[in-house]
């Protein structure tokens, strides 16, 4: 995994590259594909590296926010005792009395375990979109333990929401999400190109193969940086590909393409029917990460929360992490859904008619298509909720590793600079020496990737234009020098 123009022994002074033999018309140059990978890895790493670096650093912070949240908001999340809970209606009444003005909850999350608080969530026009006002209630004493803003159906509290928005959009709204889509789209491509270069070096090298798996401490200068880049890169490459693939599903343009593809092949997430006339509601994999929670209209009877929870528990809702949502509009059903994101995954849901207490629909995770299950697991792993603290620490280490690759890559590029000016890029014109089928395969792959990952397509065009300009300037200067010589 390297962003270098060529492999050299940096312990010795840089020397001019050896002349490259010109291939004949009927014999394309050997190694053209490796040269193409090197050039792609170089330009993508150089130009997209800052976006990947920001995503990696903010992602490392986000990975540990579930644990930080438990520490920073311990008072709000913890009850004063682990005594038996009073009915939900009493807890909701305490939260409504605390707010006053006839407030009615948009959702309730009962205490998941003894010693935890119940979260009663209210709409608040003064808060940003998709944000609710969460009142934390001691389930045994109905004491109000806290009052915080909670974002989306994930229920992220202020710290986690701030870091999540930084990671997703740099706090720049929808336009800011383009940065994360660019980073996620290119991360996998840069990683795959790096793997190709690493394999090529591993095949060519016989004595130094061990150095490709762990840095050789005896090396100095550029060679030491290259060793660290190669070794760290090969150890984190699978994680980088995983983060790229799962991160793309959150993106604006590529994410829509992925959703359409999943729906076309029958891999979409089953939707829960919430309308009382039998039509289905829309379900989404990423609702827990930041989509808006449904806002009920009208006054919800507090006692009904206990009733619908009891019905759902007799069916398929058997975990402690549950959210109860009143009808979002007339003709809608109550929804009780598991929100347990740790393994084993429990996201079963049931819809109940509040007037007749009849079950309208139910969705069980066990009945999800395999692709929908894989998507659910991938998202939870990406967010660090699947395996708790171990998952979070692994993500933190992975993000730090990716960030270090970007920094080391820039350091390698700077080490390669001549006495004056900037380091040169790997030799251009590799496709001119490729066989016809190679050129065709590269063009087809570029178009296909650009259609699925639009930001890759846009930036590929920028790379090509930049490459042409960089090649045009020296040729123009050379032509001008020859004309000046001819006129003397």
TrEMBL record:
<feature type="transmembrane region" description="Helical">
    <location>
        <begin position="434"/>
        <end position="449"/>
    </location>
</feature>
<keyword id="KW-0812">Transmembrane</keyword>
<feature type="transmembrane region" description="Helical">
    <location>
        <begin position="455"/>
        <end position="472"/>
    </location>
</feature>
<protein>
    <submittedName>
        <fullName>Putative iron-regulated membrane protein</fullName>
    </submittedName>
</protein>
<feature type="region of interest" description="Disordered">
    <location>
        <begin position="1"/>
        <end position="25"/>
    </location>
</feature>
<dbReference type="Pfam" id="PF03929">
    <property type="entry name" value="PepSY_TM"/>
</dbReference>
<dbReference type="InterPro" id="IPR005625">
    <property type="entry name" value="PepSY-ass_TM"/>
</dbReference>
<feature type="transmembrane region" description="Helical">
    <location>
        <begin position="183"/>
        <end position="204"/>
    </location>
</feature>
<feature type="transmembrane region" description="Helical">
    <location>
        <begin position="40"/>
        <end position="64"/>
    </location>
</feature>
<feature type="transmembrane region" description="Helical">
    <location>
        <begin position="393"/>
        <end position="413"/>
    </location>
</feature>
<feature type="transmembrane region" description="Helical">
    <location>
        <begin position="225"/>
        <end position="250"/>
    </location>
</feature>
<keyword id="KW-1133">Transmembrane helix</keyword>
<feature type="region of interest" description="Disordered">
    <location>
        <begin position="276"/>
        <end position="295"/>
    </location>
</feature>
<keyword id="KW-0472">Membrane</keyword>
């Amino acid at each position: 995994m390297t962003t270098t123009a060529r492999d050299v022994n940096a312990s010795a002074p840089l020397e001019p590259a050896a002349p490259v033999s010109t291939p004949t018309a009927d014999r394309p140059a050997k190694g053209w594909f490796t040269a193409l990978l090197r050039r792609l890895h170089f330009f993508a790493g150089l130009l997209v590296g800052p976006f990947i670096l920001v995503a990696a650093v903010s992602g490392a912070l986000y990975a540990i926010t579930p644990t930080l949240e438990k520490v920073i908001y311990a008072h709000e999340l913890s009850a004063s005792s682990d005594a038996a809970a009073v009915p939900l209606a009493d807890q909701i009444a305490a939260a409504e009395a605390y707010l006053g003005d006839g407030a009615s909850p948009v959702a309730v999350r009962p205490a998941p375990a003894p010693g935890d608080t119940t979260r009663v969530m209210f709409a608040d026009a003064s808060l940003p979109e998709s944000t609710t006002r969460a009142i934390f209630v001691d389930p045994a004493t109905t004491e109000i333990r806290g009052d915080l803003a909670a974002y989306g159906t994930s229920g992220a509290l202020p710290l986690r929401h701030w870091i999540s928005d930084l990671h997703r959009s740099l706090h720049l709204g929808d336009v800011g999400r383009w940065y994360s889509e660019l980073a996620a789209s290119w991360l996998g491509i840069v990683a795959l190109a790096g793997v190709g270069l690493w394999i090529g070096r591993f095949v060519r090298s016989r004595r130094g193969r061990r150095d490709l798996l762990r840095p050789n401490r005896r090396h100095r200068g550029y060679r030491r940086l290259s060793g660290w880049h190669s070794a760290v890169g090969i150890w984190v490459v699978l994680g980088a590909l995983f983060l790229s693939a799962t991160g793309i599903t959150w993106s604006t343009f590529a994410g829509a393409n992925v959703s359409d593809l999943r729906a076309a092949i029958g891999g979409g997430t089953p939707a829960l029917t919430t309308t009382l006339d039998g039509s289905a509601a829309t379900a989404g994999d990423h609702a827990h990460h930041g989509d808006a929670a449904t806002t009920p209209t009208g006054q919800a009877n507090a006692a009904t929360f206990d009733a619908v929870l009891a019905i759902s528990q007799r069916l398929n809702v058997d975990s402690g992490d549950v959210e109860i949502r009143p009808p979002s509009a007339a003709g809608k059903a109550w929804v009780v859904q598991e929100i347990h994101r740790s393994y084993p995954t429990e996201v079963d849901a049931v819809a109940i008619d509040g007037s007749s207490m009849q079950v309208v629909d139910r969705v069980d995770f066990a009945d999800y298509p395999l692709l929908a299950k894989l998507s659910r697991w991938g998202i939870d792993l990406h967010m660090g909720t699947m395996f708790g603290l171990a998952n979070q620490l692994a993500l933190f280490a992975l993000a730090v590793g990716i960030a270090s690759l970007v920094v080391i890559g820039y350091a390698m590029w700077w080490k390669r600079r001549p006495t004056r000016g900037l380091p040169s890029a790997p030799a251009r014109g590799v496709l001119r020496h490729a066989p016809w089928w190679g050129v065709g395969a590269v063009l087809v792959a570029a178009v296909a990737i650009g259609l699925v990952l639009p930001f890759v397509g846009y930036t590929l065009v920028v790379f090509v234009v930049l490459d042409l300009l960089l090649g045009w300037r020296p040729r123009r200067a050379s032509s001008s020098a020859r004309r000046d010589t001819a006129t003397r």
